[in-house]
Write a structure and sequence with these properties.
Number of helices of chain B: 27
Oligomer: heterodimer
Shape of chain B: globular
Largest sheet of chain B: 7 strands, antiparallel
Number of helices of chain A: 15
CATH topology of the largest domain in chain B: D-Maltodextrin-Binding Protein, domain 2
Distance between the termini of chain B: 93 Å
Radius of gyration of chain B: 32 Å
CATH superfamily of the largest domain in chain A: MetI-like
Strand order of the largest sheet of chain A: 1-2
Number of domains of chain B: 6
CATH superfamily of the largest domain in chain B: Periplasmic binding protein-like II
Distance between the termini of chain A: 22 Å
Number of domains of chain A: 2
Mean pLDDT of chain A: 81
CATH architecture of the largest domain in chain A: Orthogonal Bundle
Helix content of chain B: 25-40%
Shape of chain A: flat
């Protein structure tokens, strides 16, 4: 008996006693039925509960709250004041910095998102080819950057991109005779974004990379045999015809993670405020308004716009990679 | 059945694991090195007379260190004088004193203040004490500025003499009195310019039972200066040498000049004496009639060392230790509550400091003398002079080595064959004193220092040949493709490199040997230098490209030189023991450690000493109004504050204080609590920018509402009165909003122009007074490879803006002030420092100042602390003057405008209108603030902070009267005060955070991208004004309005 039939049967059973007021009958019944169903599947709900409680408390409620706040003026110290769409009007019409932040974030996301996504996938695939015994070492080595704290990372990369001739990169280029005086990597507006992107790529092998590694491990061995019988010879063909379809769920999960993380990029190795705002991202713009200016209403409006952007692109990812059933 | 079996297996596995862990733990603890042994220490004082830098100047004694001079004397066979003392007739002394009205030196008893003797209050029992005029007969008054005494002394025989003096320190700034001596117009050796008289500090209120707070924590015993005449044979103030100084005086009459500076006091009874020669241990034994029968046989007598009679440094104090075996006279165990149960610790480290205890002996006889001590730094042994009754009993005690042992250890003083020394003690009262010494490591210190001088010279010579340029951060650029043939130009190169390599390898071995064969962490820098020079010695052509490596090695070595002098140690108790005494356990084992840890963990739940900080044994806070104070400072700072509150504030005002210690910037934490309606009453150490932001949003109370009044019978000084009596006007400008002030300055920094006197003397330059002077001396500096340090930042532009008469905003705080002509002129002059004068963007001024590459630059309090704390070798080689300014005419008089900012942190009182009536304690909060910011509390706090951390963490109060009591020299204070006369601050305005942001952009565009300064600045002004207008709109300020009002101060 399938789930559906079972549910239908139960519905029939509970429908038995007739109620006098038909209008409220369904509502009451439905509610009672839901409770009943939940009770029947209490184990599953119990298992889901920890996540849902956290999700609702720390993600859903703040999101709704902040959507509400985005229609107000609120400086934290005084009560919020209703201002209608003023925040959005200012955001789209008058805030020149937002455009700059938007461009920066988009540049960053467009490059870091796909590149780190593909990089993660291919590195995970390469590692999958490595013998079992030493694989964990490789995984650890590639995953380590994601484990390092932001501060440690900043220190390491600041030395690399140090503005003077003792910076590793400057020193290397000077020694090779490619440049004649040190480049101000973290001061010159032309270099800031590329530097940020390079650092971001280096540390981007994080959760999605682990998901891929796990995904590859989860591929049924027999499928390779079957593929071999069907005439698959090269490893690349295996990747294309076996691994990619089999790791679809991980691909989707990673896509969502990557998009969210690259749109919500905030503090990078270039300190905020950066020269000519060349490292200003939407997140930094947001925290600028909430932290420095105490305009939480406006910051909420930015947050809402950012969430809508992320949601929209998330939908696209689902469309492209989601299971088509 | 099966399940049961599984359970048994599982349980046994768990038990097994626990057992293994315990066994391993025990094994590790038992196996810890408790190897207590003494090693031999070379008994030498002299250094090789073989100066690295063989120039004419260094051969003159005035430029040679004492050790070298002594070895020179030894090689010439000069003998120590052995006759009677040669006193200096007080009548024959002539001199002058810049601190007296007449300019002549005075007798102490002629000074009005001390006519009837020197009176002081003993804080321990609040009694008036006096050092009578009779007691101070013949004493010469030293005013604390510059006192110069000159006299003639006639020697009948040539020989080595020591100089004996008696001195009395008068109240001052907790610093030493400096003494400089010349013989016939010349320094007898280099260090004769830097001798000192130290103060004494004693402790009181250390009885645990009467000095604990309500939760049972001991309150830190207080220290006070102990006054009295002391005698002293002049010696090295840093404990560098084994014995007091010996001066070589030929037969005949000599003209001696003694110069006293820095602190006030009195001196008398100056005499030249025969140098003290201590007997050897064997001689000591026979002199005191040693026989087996006299050896003490009774029980060991333990004396706790927590409370000495006095120490010569305010920093060395009793500390708290949680070891299971650490003992104390108090009834409570240290791990249950704070208890000051040991003496010394990290601060008991620097050479020259002396500590004295007294103890009682009931039975005359020969005793072993033992200590329970702990070396504070891993693998660092500690050298000390051990004296009984003020006299070193035998030569081995001149520099006794407290060997490094892991953790606490107790052992008798013994020789290198592990035979304990025996000391003869008559029955009765005795004193024991320990004086920190650098020990035989002085040789390594000396060699490293000389090598470094020599290396610097070599590097300069190499740079002359390679014509290396310096990059913005100070590295050398060298053409790596070229062979420079350095040996041709510097014939001694090979030999020099070889010498350095050998010297460093000797030093490395010595350091290891003298620390008991352990590789001390500071030795690694020496090893690095050794490897580098060995490598260069073999590959001499690499020298030119290794200049940066050499630079790095030198940095490491200079840190090593500081570390060698630091030999911290902590002591628990001393033992007078019978021969071959078997010490009880002194190191806690695994279980004891675990037990202590657990007890401490659980007692931490109910032992919060910061809630109800004012309460202590005997002071009930029942029924008092309660205020909560946010303090964003470290634990030690808060502890000091808490003690002051419990001693002075709560008893006097009857207000219960709850100190809430928060990390980092506390303002972030105030916000959510304010919104939640549970905000604290007041907060201190807040950054000024936030005060304005909080203030305009109604979260703060305007402080100018408070008038002078009384609270609970105690005086409460009002806002204006406190300001006028003790604070600079400029410091209030940032807190002004619509004629009200929302913050009160708490700390305040200063900046000054630091320069190397030695380099300036060589170059024949004067420190600049104005920026034009700076530009005038720059060519000379640059020609000699030196540079001026002024780092690139928005803060660097501020003085230029102020000195041209500009400001960041207009008088109403409505628009940016950067569009004015003054602002533009200042901006361009500042940009030109980098564009025209090629200033380095960002340099580590401290390192470059030390190495001499940047002998001049603008530094602040932090820089001053670094110099004092980590660069003792530069003492006397640098000075500070007010920062350079711009000349202008004020009221017809030409002055140099040195306007700079000195903004520090501030205090605020939080508005609690959104909370219940009962929770509002504005009056009480202000009572606390005015108490906290008052002259006396700020001075006392500053003194305690200095005592806890030393100069490295000197307090910087905004209270100008309190600042005068800090241990700066008078010259330094004059500079700081002169600079503070030119304090200038900008108001905070709505949208003002854009100023620094877009000013930085404008600077970058001008300096780094080379765009037009005027366009960059005007663009910035446009953006800043737009944001300011936007913010003003938010708060409903009309375009032609004002947000400041009290323009008299802003302008």
């Amino acid at each position: 008996m399938s789930n559906k039939e079972e549910r239908n049967n139960k519905k029939k059973n509970t429908d038995m006693p007739a109620a006098p007021k038909k209008r409220f009958f369904n509502v009451e019944k439905r509610f009672g039925y839901t409770i009943h169903e939940m009770w029947t599947h209490k184990m599953s709900y119990g298992l889901m509960a920890p996540f849902f409680i956290l999700f609702i408390t720390f993600s859903l409620i703040p999101l709704l709250w902040s959507t509400g706040l985005s229609f107000t003026y609120w400086n934290i110290f005084e009560s919020p004041r209703w201002t209608g769409l003023n925040n959005y009007v200012y955001l789209f019409v008058d805030d020149s910095l937002f455009l700059k932040a938007f461009t920066n974030t988009l540049t960053y996301a467009v490059i870091v998102g796909p590149v780190s996504y593909l990089m993660s996938y291919f590195i995970a695939w390469f590692i999958n080819q490595v013998p079992n015994k030493i694989r964990p070492l490789y995984v650890l080595a590639f995953y380590a950057p994601a484990l390092t704290s932001a501060i440690a990372m900043q220190v390491v990369w600041s030395v690399m991109f140090s503005n003077d001739s003792t910076g590793y990169l400057n020193s290397l280029l000077l020694n090779l005779g490619l440049i004649y005086e040190p480049i101000q990597w973290l001061q010159d507006v032309n270099y800031i974004m590329p530097v940020i992107i390079i650092v971001a790529l280096w540390s981007s092998l994080s959760t999605q990379f682990l998901a891929f590694v796990a995904g590859f491990r989860g591929v049924d061995r027999e499928l390779y045999d079957a593929a071999a019988v069907d005439g698959v010879t090269s490893r690349f063909q295996k990747l294309l015809y076996v691994d990619v379809p089999q790791t679809m769920p991980q691909l989707l999960f990673s896509a969502v993670i990557t998009i969210t993380s690259s749109f919500t990029v905030g503090q990078t190795i270039v300190a905020h405020p950066s020269p000519e705002d060349s490292a200003l991202t939407i997140m930094l713009h947001l925290s600028d308004y909430s932290g420095t200016r105490f305009e939480v209403g406006y910051a909420s409006a930015i947050a809402v716009v950012l969430s809508v952007m992320i949601l929209g692109i998330g939908r696209v990812a689902f469309k492209v990679l989601g299971e088509k059933e | 059945m099966n399940k049961k079996k599984k359970k048994i297996i599982r349980n046994s596995i768990i038990i097994g694991v626990i057992v293994v862990v315990l066994v391993v733990g025990i094994a590790v603890y038992v196996g810890r090195s408790t190897d207590v042994s003494q090693y031999s220490v070379v008994n030498v004082d002299e250094m090789d007379f073989n100066p690295f830098v063989l120039n004419e100047e260094r051969l003159d004694n005035s430029f040679l260190e004492y050790g070298k001079v002594l070895s020179k004397y030894a090689s010439r066979g000069y003998k120590a004088y052995t006759g009677d003392d040669i006193p200096v007739d007080p009548e024959s002394i002539s001199g002058k004193d810049t601190g007296t009205e007449s300019g002549e030196f005075m007798m102490l008893n002629d000074v009005d203040e001390y006519k009837d003797g020197f009176k002081y209050t003993d804080a321990a029992d609040d009694s008036e004490k006096v050092i009578t005029a009779q007691e101070s007969g013949d004493a010469i008054y030293v005013s604390g500025t510059t006192t110069e005494l000159s006299f003639d002394v006639t020697m009948d025989t040539a020989g080595l003499y020591s100089l004996y003096m008696e001195y009395l320190m008068l109240p001052g700034r907790d610093a030493d009195m400096l003494v400089n001596m010349t013989v016939d117009g010349k320094l007898p050796f280099l260090e004769a310019s830097n001798m000192s008289f130290k103060r004494m500090y004693s402790f009181y209120d250390y009885d645990y039972e009467t000095n604990k707070d309500v939760v049972g924590n001991q309150i830190r015993p207080k220290s006070q200066e102990k006054y009295g005449w002391q005698s002293m044979v002049m010696t090295n103030p840093d404990g560098l040498y084994r014995n007091p100084y010996r001066f070589y005086l030929q037969k005949g009459t000599h003209h001696i000049v003694l110069t006293f500076t820095r602190e006030a006091g009195a001196v008398r009874n100056i005499r030249f004496i025969a140098p003290v020669v201590n007997p050897s241990y064997e001689e000591y034994k026979s002199q005191n009639g040693f026989s087996e029968g006299n050896v003490y046989k009774g029980n060991a007598i333990k004396t706790e060392l927590e409370v000495p009679d006095y120490t010569t440094s305010i920093n060395i104090r009793m500390e708290t230790d949680n070891n299971y075996y650490t003992s104390s006279d108090a009834s409570v165990k240290p791990y249950k509550a704070t208890l000051f149960n040991i003496f010394g610790g990290d601060q008991w480290a620097s050479g020259g400091d002396k500590v004295e205890w007294s103890f009682n002996v009931e039975e005359s006889g020969w005793y072993e003398l033992g200590f329970r001590y702990k070396s504070q730094t891993t693998y660092v042994s500690s050298f000390k002079e051990v004296a009984i009754d003020g006299k070193v009993p035998f030569a081995e005690m001149e520099e006794y080595c407290f060997t490094y042992v892991d953790g606490w250890t107790a052992m008798s003083l013994m020789d290198e064959n592990q035979n304990p020394y025996l000391f003869y003690l008559e029955s009765g009262e005795h004193t024991l004193s320990l004086v920190n010494k650098v020990g035989p490591l002085r040789h390594s210190l000396q060699k490293i220092e000389e090598s470094m001088d020599s290396i610097s010279e070599l590097v300069n010579n190499i740079v002359k040949i390679t014509a290396s340029a310096r990059t913005s951060s100070g590295g050398y650029t060298v053409d790596t493709n070229r062979d420079y043939d350095l040996q041709v130009y510097i014939p001694t190169l090979q030999q020099d490199l070889n010498t350095y390599a050998t010297t460093f390898s000797e030093c490395y071995e010595d350091i290891i040997k003298l620390n008991g064969g352990k590789v001390t962490s500071y030795a690694s820098a020496v090893k690095v230098a050794q490897d580098l020079f060995e490598d260069l010695d073999e590959n001499i052509e690499d020298v030119a490209i290794s200049l940066n490596d050499i630079n790095n090695a030198q940095t490491g070595l200079s840190n090593t030189m500081v570390s060698i002098r630091q030999q911290p140690i902590a002591a628990d108790y001393m033992v007078l023991a019978p021969q071959d005494y078997d010490y009880p356990d002194t190191q806690s084992n695994f279980f004891q450690g675990l037990y202590v840890g657990l007890v401490r963990f659980f007692s931490s739940f109910d032992n919060n000493k910061y809630d109800n900080a004012g309460a202590r044994e005997g002071v009930s806070t029942e029924g008092m109004p309660e205020i909560e104070v946010y303090v964003a400072r470290g634990r030690e700072h808060v502890d000091i504050m808490r003690n002051l509150v419990s001693e002075e504030f709560t008893p006097e005002y009857g207000i219960k204080v709850n100190i809430n210690m928060v990390a980092g910037s506390s303002e972030g934490l105030i916000m959510p609590r304010y919104v939640a309606g549970t905000a604290p009453d007041l907060a201190i150490s807040i950054t000024p920018g936030n005060v304005f932001e909080f203030g305009i949003r109604g979260a703060l109370i305007d402080l100018d509402r408070f008038e002078t009044t009384t609270y609970n019978g105690a005086e409460v000084v009002g806002f204006r009165d406190l300001w006028e009596s003790s604070f600079y006007d400029a410091e209030f400008v940032p807190y002004l909003y619509k004629s009200h002030y929302y913050g009160f300055p708490e700390t305040q920094t200063w900046s000054a122009l630091f320069y190397r006197t030695d380099i300036f003397d060589t170059l024949g330059l004067e420190p600049p007074d104005t920026w034009d002077d700076v530009y005038n001396i720059l060519p000379t500096l640059n020609n000699n490879g030196y540079n001026f340090c002024y780092n690139y930042a928005v803060a660097g532009y501020t003085p230029f803006l102020y000195q041209y008469g500009g400001d960041f905003y207009d008088a109403n705080g409505m628009v940016s002030g950067l569009s004015t002509e003054q602002a533009y002129d200042g901006f361009m002059e500042y940009a030109d420092l980098y564009l025209q004068y090629n200033f380095v963007y960002a340099a580590n001024f401290y390192m470059r100042f030390k190495s001499g590459e940047m002998p001049i630059g603008i530094g602040d309090l932090t820089f001053y602390q670094q110099l004092n704390y980590s660069a003792p070798e530069l003492n006397g080689k640098w000075a500070m003057v007010p920062v350079p300014g711009h000349k202008k005419v004020v009221n017809g008089v030409e002055v140099v405008d040195r306007s700079t900012s000195g903004l520090g942190t501030c205090c605020i009182i939080i508005n609690k209108e959104n909370q219940s009536e009962e929770s509002r304690h504005y009056e009480e909060s202000w009572a606390f603030l005015q108490w906290w910011l008052s002259d006396s509390v700020q001075s006392e706090y500053g003194r305690e902070v200095e005592a806890t951390f030393g100069v490295a963490s000197r307090w910087n109060p905004a209270n100008k009267n309190a600042a005068q009591t800090l241990p700066y020299t008078q010259e330094e204070l004059d500079v700081i005060n002169a600079q503070w006369e030119w304090l200038k601050e900008s108001p905070n305005t709505m949208g003002g955070y854009y100023t620094s942001r877009y000013l930085l952009t404008a600077l970058n565009q001008t300096v780094i991208q080379g765009l037009s300064g005027r366009i960059a600045l005007e663009d910035a002004v446009k953006i800043i004004n737009k944001e300011m207008r936007r913010k003003q709109g938010e708060f409903g300020v009309p375009v032609d309005g004002s947000i400041l009002y009290e323009t008299a101060i802003a302008g």
